[in-house]
Amino acid sequence: MSKPNQSQLERHINGYLDHLLVERGLAKNSMSSYRRDLARYLEFLTSKAFHDFSNVSANDVSEFLIGLRLGNDLHPALAPSSAARTLIAVRGLHAFLAKEGITTSDSARAVKPPSVSKRLPKALTFAEIEKLLAAVGTESESDLSILMMRDQALLELLYGTGARISELMDLNLDDVSSLTKDLPILRLRGKGNKERLVPVGSHALRALDRYLVRSRPVLSGKSAANSALFLNARGSKLSRQSAWMILQQAAQRADLAGKVSPHTMRHSFATHLLENGADVRVVQELLGHASVTTTQIYTLVTVDQLREVYATAHPRARAR
To answer: pLDDT tens across 48-78, in order?
Structure first.
């Protein structure tokens, strides 16, 4: 139901957002990005005295894009990648309006996003990963604290499954109840609530089992029953921000400060699989990418490494 003082522009934008949420099942973080981007577009259209979308032309959308890149008194200039993301939201809106018959044509279809240089994802070496994971514990497993057991399980799962941090934070006890040595398969819910199956390695499985048996019962006893897999010291669901801090603290202890984020673990997972001969389509499935094109950026990392090794090791690779 529309609000009394809501403009026609706002009603149509909210209709599109409802479509993304209900029909497409977009994740919470994606919805926040779309709302923010379309709010900036609404601000632009309102400043140009538009009252509906039927009069918006491709030139107007292009002007909006230029404004994103240049910035103004209210908004700083956006990088090409951020401007491209915002334009994708606007293009999706106009395509929706045309499909629904609200407008007679798709005004944004001809407006192309700015080209974005393809940046290679940063991955840790396997030695750095081992150093990071070792920084969570102590020399003796019997000396591990309740929180250390949780942190080890969290970081082992991050690297061992390539999961997004939000996917691990959304796991419940039921999601891991069927995990065994004979069937170490974890069901993750990714973007758009799409599910995928990911194997869990022996190291992650052992750390998770230790957390479930020795650590989580202690944490869960500090508050009312909570079905979340990972709990904080108060027995509540561990937040993404807290999980990020756990990783940062481990990185500092491992002398890797500034080099590690949750996505670094995901990048490392994919890169190490490809370096060791995994098929790119298998890695695509494990990461939950809709298109293999997204996954293929990791192959650029391994090609660069091969080139570097060749240049330093082959006797006829260097000029004499």
So the answer is: 999 999 999 999 999 999 999 888 878 888 8
